[in-house]
Amino acid sequence: MTAAASPEAGPFAALVDWGTSNFRIWLVDSEGIVLGEGQSADGMSATAAQNRFAAVLEEHLEALNAPPFLPVVIAGMAGARAGWLEAPYVETPTALTDLHLHTVCPQAARKVHILPGLCQKQTGPFDVMRGEETQLAGVIAGGIETGIIAMPGTHCKWVDLEQGIVKRFRTAMTGELFDLIGKQSILRLSIPAEATELNGEAFDQAVSEALSPAFSLPTGLFSIRAAALLTAPAENEAASRLSGLLIGAEIAGMRAFFEGGKTVHIVASARLSALYARALHLAGVVSHPLDGSALVRHGLFAAARKLIVQDQDIRP
Amino acid sequence: MTAAASPEAGPFAALVDWGTSNFRIWLVDSEGIVLGEGQSADGMSATAAQNRFAAVLEEHLEALNAPPFLPVVIAGMAGARAGWLEAPYVETPTALTDLHLHTVCPQAARKVHILPGLCQKQTGPFDVMRGEETQLAGVIAGGIETGIIAMPGTHCKWVDLEQGIVKRFRTAMTGELFDLIGKQSILRLSIPAEATELNGEAFDQAVSEALSPAFSLPTGLFSIRAAALLTAPAENEAASRLSGLLIGAEIAGMRAFFEGGKTVHIVASARLSALYARALHLAGVVSHPLDGSALVRHGLFAAARKLIVQDQDIRP
Question: What pTM was computed for the model?
Answer without folding.
Answer: 0.92
